[in-house]
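Sanity check

After download, print the first record. It should look like this:
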Amino acid sequence: MIKLRLKRYGKKRAASYRIVAIDNRSRRDGRPLEELGFYNPRTDETRLDVPGIVKRLKEGAQPSDTVRHILTKAQVFEQVKA
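Expected structure tokens:
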């Protein structure tokens, strides 16, 4: 099963995250199938590849709880339903 989840990178205590599509059996920082966005929790900055995310969600990818919250704030799920 494909999951949309966060991949950590950056310095110690100054982490940033990439939103990636990855097999659910892979480790957190393993090799992703596709990178779909960026999230910085310190500045609350997000950059999303919305067409890529919508494509993955329509194929059946399941977002993690944190990614689901980020996508809800960006109103991505409305585009999936349309």
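If your output differs, re-run the checksum step. Summary of this record's structure: The chain has three helices and five strands.
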